[in-house]
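Q: Predict the assembly, please.
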Amino acid sequence: MADRAGFGDRLVEAVRASTPLCVGVDPSSALLGSWGLDDSADGVERMGRTVVEAVVGTAAAIKPQVAYFERHGTRGYAALEAVIAAAREAGILVVADAKRGDIDATMTAYGEAWLSDASPLAVDALTVSAYLGLAAMEQVMKMASGSGRGLFAVVASSNPEGRSLQEARTAAGQRVEEELLAELSARNEAEVAATGRGLGSFGAVVGATRTAGSLPLGGLHGPFLVPGVGAQGATANDVGALFSRCPEGSVLVNASRSILAAGPSAAEVARAARELGDELRSALP
Amino acid sequence: MADRAGFGDRLVEAVRASTPLCVGVDPSSALLGSWGLDDSADGVERMGRTVVEAVVGTAAAIKPQVAYFERHGTRGYAALEAVIAAAREAGILVVADAKRGDIDATMTAYGEAWLSDASPLAVDALTVSAYLGLAAMEQVMKMASGSGRGLFAVVASSNPEGRSLQEARTAAGQRVEEELLAELSARNEAEVAATGRGLGSFGAVVGATRTAGSLPLGGLHGPFLVPGVGAQGATANDVGALFSRCPEGSVLVNASRSILAAGPSAAEVARAARELGDELRSALP
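A: Predicted assembly structure:
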């Protein structure tokens, strides 16, 4: 385990070998309908497998939005396990968008679910939400780093409803989003120093709809996951401006509806992914 | 649907008919071992069913911690569905502790998973986490209220790591926890006014380890879910002092390890639950 490559470095390599694109697998009722698929666990699995097949080599990662699998209960989780297994076989990274967040013992259980070799839900990275504090995730961070996996903590979300909380000032005078970014940065620096890895395992979710200059993004020493491109309004150039000071290959840009709308043809999904992927590669460091 | 009783009123009734106790179903590896059960989905289901059988009539609710089910992937979710079904049949309320939180479309998918009659995961209430803003949960709040179900948003957690974020000051000068409580309160007031219900459906998670007087808890017009009693250090009297101004039956106090440690005998779990339940009934309004 100790000499497994870290998630940050694995991501950089995947971006170099393809593009900075991450394709969101969001099998909503509406999208399933537009693909001619049933709103069922089978339909969800079918869409997920098609996306994997279509975007391997063009996107660095897929990001299943777990909520759309959970809509179908246990059978939805079976579909998620199948899509994760298909992605692993195809050699594309998987980021589970589950935004887990709880006290330490509970977080450790989530780590065992998503970041442990033995789990059928094991993925390359998991999104987490730190309302209960990033320090409650100490053990999960160790599990991630030790197994070559990563975390993406939501720092600055792409939706306007999150602004009030994320811009609130802590006792130290920093905004919540700044403090969280600084905590992630410190942990990445420590990991990089201890392991000799190039980039740390502890990523930040920062919406592409944020304004450049409002957060010191260049100092994270870890990966970014960036929602908000395409259907949510931001362009590849917006992302390029926002992350201009970040290391090459460290920024993973998620798009979902704008890619999936090209389906159900895998060839059309592939074309849409290639187009946006190339655009992002030109726009990003 | 429109004339189904609301979650707040259903909770008050359940507390009156039993006690303010909610028994946390946290089938950790350690607890399963101490019960002589396998650390497997079967072991998890067995523990959950035993808790339901033991505490019906004594506790108002059970609270499965979803992380401990998720550790077992799809089979763990099947165990969770079985425990939820057993609780429904036994007539005890179920609060799914999943702390879901995301942007609006995704939250709606979570609502469909946990708060919709058709879902195998349908429960009486779901815990949510508002790092992305409570306003992103508009649609889910409608789904909850309309189906007689509830939400519990984490306001002030029982762990110290959450303090910095939860006490950060928003632009309006309030602490994050105060602003969230005020938002929940406003929504409960609107719901109560529109429906004639006694108590609203939008609850707050407030740790029993918090200090009385630091939050205007008496004005929520909705239910509370209170972790931190027993193994986490707070007593029934601490809870009584903290919630002294809240309506009768509106406070649901969770205990897990201190009750489950009495197992694997259902009779011993029942005895531990009865003892703490009675103590809480005396201490609370």
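Chain A touches chain B through 60 residues (CB under 8 Å). Chain A has one domain: 7-280.
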